[in-house]
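User: Reviewer 2 asked us to show a designed sequence for the structure in our supplementary figure. I'm pasting the structure tokens here. Could you produce the per-position amino acids so we can include them in the response letter?
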């Protein structure tokens, strides 16, 4: 299984389409949908005051890691729809929030799929998805549920997501550190991505053997 430095290549998206069609990807995605629904019933992790962190983002990130960005869009649609009807909260079913869920899982995939997962990648993925929660989630609240101004909603959401960011990052680091070796052994991710790294070191160019001189000849 090939890994890519960035998602900006034709080969990357060809792999994403192929993996989306694989039975094991569909089975794993179905398990992650079930995991998201089950995790929705668990008590959230209290952080400070009335701010708490739920668990569903962990299953979404895992599905994005294994399935890729094409699968992420389908998974996000199915997971949000099934999750709502299994555990409906206040308000009606809203397609807008399906879109934001799909975008979030898609973003995770761009950072994690067919890549060497590092702590920095995890932090950046959470930072981007939390910004999506602030501005897009705030827009949904403003349009459908709140009489407050948009920027008032964004301000409150920004504080909440800033507090959640380090907690969610640590949770993802712990999850990936534990499961990357297992997922690699199951051939769900490339063997090169079998462990979590702090960062990706710079590649050193090796000189050909004929160009390496003994120190006494320098």
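Assistant: Here is a per-position design you can include in the supplement:
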């Amino acid at each position: 299984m090939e890994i890519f430095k960035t998602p900006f290549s034709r080969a990357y998206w060809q792999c994403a389409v192929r993996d989306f069609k694989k039975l094991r990807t569909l089975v794993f995605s179905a398990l992650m949908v079930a995991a998201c629904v089950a995790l929705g019933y668990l008590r959230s992790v209290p952080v400070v005051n009335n701010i708490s962190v739920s668990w569903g983002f962990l299953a979404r990130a895992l599905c994005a890691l294994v399935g890729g960005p094409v699968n992420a869009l389908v998974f996000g649609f199915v997971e949000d729809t099934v999750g709502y009807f299994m555990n409906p909260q206040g308000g009606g079913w809203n397609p807008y929030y399906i879109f934001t869920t799909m975008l979030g899982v898609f973003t995770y995939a761009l950072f994690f799929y067919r890549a060497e997962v590092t702590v920095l990648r995890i932090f950046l993925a959470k930072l981007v998805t939390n910004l999506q929660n602030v501005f897009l989630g705030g827009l949904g609240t403003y349009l459908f549920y709140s009489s407050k101004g948009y920027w008032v909603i964004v301000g409150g959401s920004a504080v909440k997501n800033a507090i959640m960011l380090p907690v969610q990052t640590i949770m993802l680091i712990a999850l990936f550190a534990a499961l990357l070796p297992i997922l690699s052994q199951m051939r769900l991710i490339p063997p090169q991505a079998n462990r979590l790294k702090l960062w990706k070191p710079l590649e050193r160019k090796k000189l050909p053997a004929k160009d390496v001189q003994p120190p006494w000849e320098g």
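For the response letter, you might also mention the following. Confidence is low (pLDDT under 50) at residues 202-207, 209-218. The helical segments are 10-21, 23-39, 56-86, 95-112, 119-144, 150-185.
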